[in-house]
Amino acid sequence: GMRKRAAVARAIALAEAHGVEVIAADHPEHFAAGLDEMLARGTRRVFVLGGDGTVQAIVDHLARRAPGSAMPQLLVLGGGRTNLTAADLHGSGSALKKLERALIRSARDPAGGFELQHRHTLVMEQAPAPPRHGFFVAGAIVDSLIRRCHHDRATGSGRLRTGTHSTALTLTKEAIPALRGRAPYEFPELDLEVPGLGRLHEPMRLLLASTLSHDNRMLNPYADRGAGILRVTAVTAGARGFWRSLPRLVTGRYSEAMDIGRGYLSGHCDGFLVRGLDAYTLDGQSFRADPARPVAVRTGPRFDFLVP
Questions:
Q1: Could you tell me if residue 95 is left (phi over 0), alpha (psi between -120 and 50 degrees) or otherwise beta?
Q2: What is the dihedral sign for C-alpha 78, 36, 32, 122?
């Protein structure tokens, strides 16, 4: 999914110089068959250079394989517009240098040579659609903002509207009006039920969930409450002191006053149900849902990641 052609060509040349098979694709259908063939031949390491959407498509494809199928170890390097998963696994920044070092290390020690980390996927379920696997999901106003970013890229021209930094620029311009619920943004009424944390049934400003750790990162919008691998945060449109509390929210430093009675639900869990959801964004990819039926969000299979 990398947009810079020179970087793509350099990455392919590096891989081929080390005798590594390359799949260059811009759509999941273009890599699925090749990935299956590689795994059938015994490939146990897959290096991924792309954005969050590319990583989501790969783990979703792997998670759908037959039970008991061997899962490869993944090394994720950020090469897209958004690279939250790569950043969580120490793969953001200097992607080509990290790729070259990883290729050298893998050639020296085909069975080891890397620190391993583990992440579970989260799963979005609403039949008859197939379960969808990823690492972070956004609903309510955050989903609307991401869709606005997609629209601006699709309809715009020039680097500012379509380039690497287009997402950040759109978010900077639109975030405050969106979080205030100003046109064209509206607060959707959601019914969120999280075992162990509580229930909110109100117009919602924010809905976020993730199985990423966000260790040592400024953006970590989850309270250290509850138990479970999955983390969720929801904030109602009428949450008390929202703007005053926003710095605490985005850094995970929740005060005692930021509780469910004041419109804040946040913490660890194993899964939850949300009703009224008509759309969500999974790892940057937009999906539709039926608001008349609940969407179940739960912890999914575990993947092993190589630290570059």
A1: alpha
A2: negative
* 231 φ, ψ (degrees, to nearest 5): -120, 145
In this structure, are residues 84 and 52 in contact, taking their beta carbons and an 8 Å threshold?
yes
CB atoms near residue 65 (< 10 Å): 14
pTM of the model: 0.89
**Alpha-carbon separation of residue 298 from 9, 44, 195, 215, 271 (angstroms):** 38, 27, 12, 21, 4
Q: How many residues does the chain have?
A: 308
At 96-117, the pLDDT tens digits run 999 999 999 999 998 888 999 9
- Report DSSP state, residue 130: P
Among 59, 46, 54, 47, residue whose Cα is nearest residue 25: 54
The DSSP symbol for 240 reads: T
Q: In Å, what is the CA distance from 107 to each residue of 111, 112, 296?
A: 9, 10, 42
Q: Tens digits of per-residue pLDDT, 117-161?
A: 999 999 999 999 999 999 999 999 988 888 787 666 667 666 655
CA dihedral 220, 225, 228, 229 (to 10 degrees): 10
Residue 210 to residue 251: CA distance in whole angstroms: 15
pLDDT, mean over the chain: 89
List helix spans (H) across 4-127: 5-17, 28-40, 52-63, 84-88, 95-108
Read off the tokens for 162.
Answer: 């379509």
Closest-CA residue to 282 (of 135, 171, 152): 135
Q: Count each helix (H run) and each strand (E run) in the chain, helices first.
A: 9, 13
SS3 content of the chain, % helix, strand, coil (to 5): 35, 30, 35
State the Cα–Cα distance between residues 308 and 52, nearest whole angstrom: 17
d(C-alpha 308, C-alpha 113), whole Å: 10
The candidate with the shortest Cα–Cα distance to 134, out of 51, 199, 200, is 51
